[in-house]
Amino acid sequence: MKLIKTTLATGIAAALALGVAGQANASVYASSSLKIQNFTVGITGLAANPIQSYEFTLTNTATLNGASSPVQTNTCSGTTPGSGCNTSPSLDAPAANAPGGTVIRANNDFSFFGPGTDTYSNADSVIYTSELGNGVPSSTAQIAESELQGNGAARSNAEITSNTGFSFTFLVSGTGSLSLSFEADPSLYAEINQLSFTSGAAQANMNASFSLTKNDGTSEINWRPNGTASNDCSVTGSVVSVTCAETNDKADLNQNISVTSNPATVSYSRSAGWSLMGVNVAGLTDGTWTLAFNGVTSTSVRTVPEPSVLALLGLAIAGMGAVTRRRKLV
Question: What's the predicted TM-score (pTM) here?
Fold first, then answer.
């Protein structure tokens, strides 16, 4: 009887070990990165300096198998140009590294760790320079990256937001305009590429948007650059003189990619480099306006147990029950 019990237990343990070992090789990976440089705001037709206030915020988060890093965030603000956010860098927040990761992202390291043999989730963001804080064209960087080996789930998110308040007084009412121009370097990547993988998903997301809103609610301009020939800038409200037109839209900054099969790889602008971006808003009227920017890079990856592992677990339980029943009969 001891020989039968021992042989069965050994066989079950070996089968489970093989199943779990195979599952440990199942890897999913996703990354999202956005860099911006030479960002400038130009306003024409003004009778006085329009800047009333500005505020910048960075937020980085990361989660791995249910364990989350502390939320890493920082904010700076000013009233007139140079009165705040004038350090170097203009604004920085520590990188978020989820507990239990096998690699750690250093602060302001925006390189890709890439898919390999690691398990981690992290995010980081920085505003290197700002036109309002440092008096030079603005530049930013943000990244989110996650990888899993074996079962589990991971998420990461980096977000940059800014809000600038203007009080416009134009020399000739209705003839003022505001233009934005910058260069962008977006990158998205998602991959599943392991022999034993059977179920899961890898997703990378990027969303960047600009809005110019008249504070009395009579006009709102929204721009979500999508890298298309059509005009992605929209105008709503009762101020009929306001128009908006893209001057450059060479890259899609609002993109989501994902994969669920094995093997599978999908990417966007992984090595395309810098692209020109710009928009011009004309017909602005006197009053107070707010210019807002929101940029988000995020990842989500997960794997689930293979059916073979669950079947082996059922076999183990059934086998142990059979041994117990036989021992009682004997």
Answer: 0.86
